[in-house]
Fold this protein.
Amino acid sequence: MKIVSRNEELLRDALSCIPQPSRRTSLASCNKLIRFEDISAAAFKIQCGVQKTPCMYSRLSKQYGMDIYLKKEFLQYTGSVKERGVLYLLMSLPQDQQRKGVIVASDSNFSMAVAYHASELRIPVFVIMPTSTAPGRVKMCREYGAMVISYGTTAKDSQVHARRLAQENGYLYLEEEDSAVYLSGLGTVGLEMYEQVPKLDAVIFPAGGHCGLLAGSAAALKHLNPHISVIGVESESFPVLQQSLKAGHPTEDQACNNHHFYGDVSGVCFGSNSLQLTGKLVDKVVAVREEDILISMLRLLEYERATVDAEGAIGLAALVAGKLPELKGKRVAVVICSGNLELHLLQQCIARALTLDNRVCRFSLVISDCPGDMSKLLEILAREEARVLDIKQERTFVTSELFTVEVICTVETRDKIHTAQLRNALLERYPTTAWTER
C-alpha cells in the first residue's frame, strides 16, 4: 500500500464499502463526500467505543434568560469530542493497514484520541511529540498504550520525523483533516443532541481553525430539522473561519499562535470540505474575546462542576459576552467539547477569571504607622465581609509624610456590587485609596 501524507484516498475507499441509501439533494450540493447516511452509519459503528454523553439542562439558564442544555463531550475517556471522528477513522482503515500501524505527530486532543483508540483496537500506534510538550500529556499518551517519541523543538520537526518513519516502516501518517469519515464521526454529536433535547431552537459549537465538529454536526442537524440555527464561535484573536469564509478558501491568520491556552481553537482552517459545509449549513459565526472565554470557564466550574479548556468553554462564551441576543427565551444547546486543561494553566485561568469577574480586587492606601491603625483597616474589611487574600506593608519607599506606611491589599468579594460597596466604604475612611485597575 502506498503511504501518503494525507489519507483521503484510503478513507474514500473505506467509505465506499458502507451501504449508502439515496442521496439528499441539499447535502449533495454542499459536499459530495459526506451525507446524513454516512453520519448515521458512523453512529452505529462507534456506539460501543465512545460515550453517549449527557446533554443536560444547565443552572446557568436563568442567568442568561434562555433554556441552556450542555452537551458534555469532555466526559469522553480522553476528555475530547475528537474521539468520535478518530474511532470511526481507525475502524474504517483496511485490515492490512491496521496491522502495520499508524503514526501521529502533535500533542493535541486528536493525537490523544488516536493513542487511546488505536491501542483499544490493537493497532500499533506511535506518537511523535516536540520536546516542549507538557510532561502530563506525554505520560497520558503512554498510559493509553501508544509508543511516544519526543523529537524536535517544534511541531514541524515532529511532523517531518513522523512522515519519515511512516515511509520507512509502512505506518499510515494521520493528521487531523476533513475527510468524509472523520467528519461523519464528529457529526454523530449532532444526532445525539437532536435525540436528547426536543424542540431545539439553536445549537452552538466551537469553531476556529478545526471546524470539523461544526461542519459534521451541522450536516446532521440541518438534515433532521432545517429550522435549527447552527452557530459557530471562534476567538477574536484569530478569526480564521470568518476570514476563510470571506475569502472562499482556507486561509492562515498571521496572528495565530500556539499558546497552550487555546489548544485546538487556534490554527489554520484545515480543509475545503468542512469550510464548504460550514458556508452552506452554518447560520452564523461569531467571535469572542479571551476575557469572555475565561469567564465562561469560571461559570462552568462553579455552576456545572466542569473543568474545561478554552475549546470547551468558547461556545458558552458567546452567551456570556451577549453576542447572541436573538436567543433570549429559546432552547439552546451548547457543546462543551474538551476538558484537557493543563494543571499549571488551570490555576492561572481561575485567578484571572476571578479578577475579570470583579471578585478579586487590589487597592493601596497610606495609613499612620501607629499601633491600632492596621486593626482599624481590618475592621472595615471584616464589616464589609471582604476576604483578605494578601496584605503587604511598605515603609522604606513611601514618598508621603514621615511615619506612615503604604498598605497593599488583595481581597475577594462576592460580585461587582459587593466590590463597589467595599470601595465606597474605604474611600469614606481613606480618601486617597488607589484601586488597581484590571
Remarks:
- The radius of gyration is 25 Å.
- The chain is about 45% helix and 15% strand.
